[in-house]
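Exercise 7.
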Amino acid sequence: MNFKRKRKDSYQYRNKKPFFKRKSFYLISGLIIGLAIAVGLYQTSVYFSTNESCMMCHVHPHVEDSWKQSVHMNNGSGTKVNCVDCHLPPKNNTWDHYTAKAKLGIKDVWGYLTKDSIDFDWEKKSELEEAIKYIPNESCKECHHNLFPQGITDEGITAHLYYDENEEKLDLQCISCHLDVGHHNPNYKHSKLTVVPGAGKSAADSASYFKEATMVDKFEDFVEQIPQTPISFKMVAVDGGTFKMGSDAKEQFHKEDEAPVRNVTVSSFFIAEVETTWDMYWAFYGQTRSEGRTPPEMVFANNSNPDIDAVSGPTPPFGFPDQGWNGGDRPAITMTHYAAETFCQWLSMKTGKKYRLPTEAEWEYAARGGTETPYFFAGDPKDFSDQGFWRKFFDADTEGISKYVIYSKNGKNRTQEPSMVEANPFGLKNMLGNVMEYCADKYADNAYATSGDNVTNPINTTGEEWVVRGGNYTSDAADLRSAARSATQHNNWLKTDPQQPKSIWWYSDIKGIGFRVICEPDASIVK
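Solution. The predicted structure, written as tokens, is:
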């Protein structure tokens, strides 16, 4: 027995050393494999931070060419900025950098596998609203430490001072003003002053400007010419008449402030074929703008003085009122009601006619174009609207409305030129959709109930806010009915304006607001 136990003990002893050798082997092998995996993961991470790997998924047409033409790639310093330098948080913040990279990577791979890039709206994805989602501001500041580099313009200094003082308060981002630096867009205008018609033109260029306003001696359509500018626009003659204003409870999406239906008579008037365009508004801005921070009380006093033959216009805006969508024939937006009224005052002085904002009754009369249906075109609001239980399963009809209206279904999240739609029976474009339009009336939800069943040329002058009509490019079809009413939200629309007092010219938090003008005809030419 003792011999067997000894032999057994000797066997265990003899095999004890190989056991430790195996354990060391497994440990070393594990370390090597782990190191190899770590190196592999690192190399994989490095590869998936290259521009080539980014473009495996980002196959849209503009990404590579526009990036190579941008100032981040094509610049005098010879410095090359890569995709991840702009689209991910800086690497010195390791956790944020790699978590953001993982999230974007998963999203990109999923999109690459499940979506067809041909269906994407690349124009929309190039807008500021999309860009700010994928450009961390700390990445911009990682490279741009000095906000006032050598060679910066005076306008740049002003803008950067504004950014430096209000970055945290307003959550401002570099990309908001520098959308073009990463992906070149030949149509993008960084300087807000370059879009003013006539800016920088020579005296020879101004020789083509209109010398006189259009003479109107008949009540018929005419093309107004604004003296000392190259700007002209069409005014449509609308014969006065009586119509049923508002809507009753039978109309789909009817609201209480649209009732009761009244018989309203309006006098004949001229109305602009289209909403006031940027070309028109920048002409006004260029000739009237107030330098610096002109106190509002001085502006009000000057513009209300009948003995003064010039008006004080808007102060320069911060940022880009046109949202980078370009100007031209697109409707001018983001101005206050006071700015729109001042435009009319300026236009009246320039042309010798009486221009003003339409009353709410004139606006609805013009929008209906002689019809009594919810829209001036055929169709039921419930068929066009996205509201309602069944819209979870069936898409709204767009065929009958899209050729007349710029709204949530076809607006591409921006305003559009008048050429995109057909006119109503009176020959007016964009009365519904595109931008909300200011009226001369103060808003009251019971305005119709207090004015009687039969009224002539009504206008409401009591209230805190102004009437706006027509809906805009983000509106649902239910809010585009001819009877639909809305109101300004002055304080909310100025919420992020840091100025004290708040701007009297520009709104900071609303894009889809604009206006069109009315011209009162001389009594001698009206039928």
